[in-house]
């Protein structure tokens, strides 16, 4: 009988999760959104999006090199508040950026009463995201990291110069969407936007 800690180190790869996702287009789930701030003397506020590569699309041909190989992995994306004319944190987010994210997540035009309502509404919503890999240098060390900008507007422009997040091509199965809605703070209190009822799912059925 094998011991509790017996394993073959030649079959163990500890470095895989430390590497960035390969560049490409991924179908993902917005697992959570929270407000954070950079460290330092002049902190800058941002929304931290935790996206997970969906695992329910492994057999989709166009996603064979992205979702099929990387499902379950996390991608963290920061959406920063705008800076004022003096380069300081204004504490305000670009409404065009937040509106775009809501639109691609399938959320109808809504007047959110707070940033919490906005974040809750995005919980577990699917999006299609373009992911790139960028090399940075920090304290003399070069490292690769992912970048996935939802949309970018040059200052003073109303038309985007770049779009990186789109509506999903593969909507969630109704039963899956139902279960996710039940765990969503924005829809858990009797608000049910899905028509299918009585769906019984396990964690293995979830798309992440």
* Major sheet summary line: 6 strands, antiparallel
Shape: globular
Content-based structural category: alpha+beta
The total beta strand count reads 8
Poorly predicted regions are 12-16, 190-199
**Oligomeric composition of the shown chains:** single chain
Discrete helix count: 4
Structural summary, described in words:
Strand 4 (125-138) and strand 5 form a beta hairpin. The longest helix has 10 residues, at 95-104. It is built from four helices and eight strands; from the N terminus they run ββαβααβββββα. The chain has one domain. Helix content is 15%, strand content 27%. The chain is α+β, with helices and mostly antiparallel strands. It has helices spanning 67-70, 95-104, 115-122, 174-182, and strands at 24-37, 45-53, 74-80, 125-138, 141-147, 151-152, 162-163, 165-166. Strands 1, 2, 3, 4, 5 and 8 form a six-stranded antiparallel β-sheet that branches. It has a two-stranded antiparallel sheet with strand order 6-7. The radius of gyration is 19 Å and the shape is globular.
